Amino acid sequence: MSRTNRKIILYISIIIIVILIIIFRQELLLNIENFAFWAYPNDENRNGEITKLIINIIGGFVVLIGLRAALIRAKASQKGIEKQSESIKNQTSQIELTRISQTNELFKNAIEHLGSKSESIVLGGISELHFIASENKEKFSEVVLNILCSKLRSEASIKKDAEEISKTITQTIIDYIYKTKVYTNLDSDISSTNLTGIKLNNTKIKNCNLSFSNIPWKMHNIEFENCNLTSIKCSLGKFKDIKIINCNIFHSKFNASEFENLEITNSNGIQKLECLNSKFTNSILNCSLYNSTFISCEFISTDFSENDISSINFTASSFFKIDFSKNEITNCNFSACGFVEVITNNWIQKCTFKGIKNDTRYYMLFNEKQLEQSLNTENNFSGIQYNNNLFLKNETSILTKEDADDSIKTYNELVKKHYPKKKKAL
User: Fold this and answer.
1) CB atoms < 10 A from the CB of 183, how many?
2) pLDDT in tens, 149-193
3) Angle 148-151-154 from CA coordinates, rounded to 5°
């Protein structure tokens, strides 16, 4: 029944009641008076009391009618609000569908832009993808990261000559991935890339696969954590304030590089590290260097922590202010090495000491000159503090021309193997 019909019935009912009261007023008055005598037999003002009672009843009836009317209006208002809310939900849903459609279209266009031959269009596509990931991290950050990494591996492939690589595209992707918080804690794969001239300073890189890459030759204030740095390579690098935490650096290669305040901790996969003509200053190497090579390298105030120094080729290297007292040294080659203020009050076994000297003169990139300084000279142990009782089964003799030639051959083979052709930097 509609609201209008209910009102008509109410009005008709009131009219009928009024008519009935008019028609039967005498009978009503008589009955009321009789009721008054019954209800108030000893009250002289019985008619007034009855009148008050009737007025109260009528008032209560009117109040009930008012409450019912208010309830009807409230229900009507509630339905209006519900309809309005439903309308807003529909509008919101439509807006969301429109936004999703626009995002999908933008995503599609951005992917297409990555394949353009125009650098500016590619950069636009990269920016569009990063914007999408920034706006909806939960849905898009991981997929966009994978796309950006794929583009980086393609653009800066280590198989390309440096002049074929766009430094701008490479640097832009690197900045978005590692210098924003959009992709934090996500795994990134930029393996086998040439990042030689790229800037990574003041960055924390976590869960990244950089294996088989040419890393930037200048890095400052960088922390690598849980990264795969297997077989990374760098020549003429300058590294300062670098932290490497829980990373794999197996068989990585450095030539003519300088490390200052390098700290490697909780990293076990650092075996077979190959360093030529490199310098380590005020560094902490809290890692196993088993079967590594440090030819013509310089160590100044470097802490090898409590790790065993085993099966390492230190030929033609120099050591200044090094404390090996916590290390057991076995099966290492110290031929043509220089020692100044070195402490080794622990086991030294099955090592080779040929032509060692109390000198730390260092000739970077002149391996042959390093060896010449030690040819056919008596060993000079005055720069080493060691315990004779723990110095066992070591070979101590002069460095012959044959020894020097063998060392030079090993050195040249490593240079030829890992640095066959110098390419232009990015």
Assistant:
1) 24
2) 999 999 999 998 888 899 999 999 999 999 999 999 899 999 999
3) 150
